[in-house]
């Protein structure tokens, strides 16, 4: 699936899922891809997030990688922004990682 032919249903499903992640919880790219019905498309989820409109109200900051890390380079402004937003919701970092066991959103939970 290339970024030019990401199916609209996939896009809508991913956006709906991101909008469903509660404050204080996180989801992994691959988790969202799987829930959207495309288990091997975590990079497509990343592309959708990268291309979100500037004025989007989706809680993009609640999506991190499966290791519990922010995917932006550590010294980047986006990394600091995402970390600040997560910490403001009560998500705690230890060694630049979030405990997926503690903070991972489980749909329908």
Automatic annotation (TrEMBL):
**GO MF annotations in UniProt:** methyltransferase activity
Keywords carried by this UniProt record: DNA damage, Methyltransferase, Transferase
Q: Key word DNA damage present in the record?
A: yes
Q: Which CDD domains match?
A: ATase
Q: What Gene3D superfamilies is this protein classified in?
A: Winged helix-like DNA-binding domain superfamily/Winged helix DNA-binding domain (1.10.10.10)
Q: Which SUPFAM superfamilies match?
A: Methylated DNA-protein cysteine methyltransferase, C-terminal domain
A GO biological process held by the record: DNA repair
Q: What is this protein called?
A: Cysteine methyltransferase
Q: Which organism is it from?
A: Pseudoalteromonas amylolytica
């Amino acid at each position: 699936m290339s970024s030019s032919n990401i199916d609209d249903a996939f896009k809508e499903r991913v956006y709906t899922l991101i909008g469903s992640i509660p404050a204080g919880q996180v989801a992994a790219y691959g988790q969202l891809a799987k829930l959207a019905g495309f288990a091997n498309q975590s990079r497509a989820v990343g592309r959708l997030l990268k291309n979100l409109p500037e004025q989007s109200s989706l809680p993009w900051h609640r999506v991190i990688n499966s290791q519990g890390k922010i995917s932006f380079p550590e010294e980047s402004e986006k990394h600091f922004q995402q970390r600040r937003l997560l910490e403001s919701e009560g998500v705690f970092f230890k060694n630049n990682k979030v405990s997926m066991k503690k903070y991972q959103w489980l749909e329908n939970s």
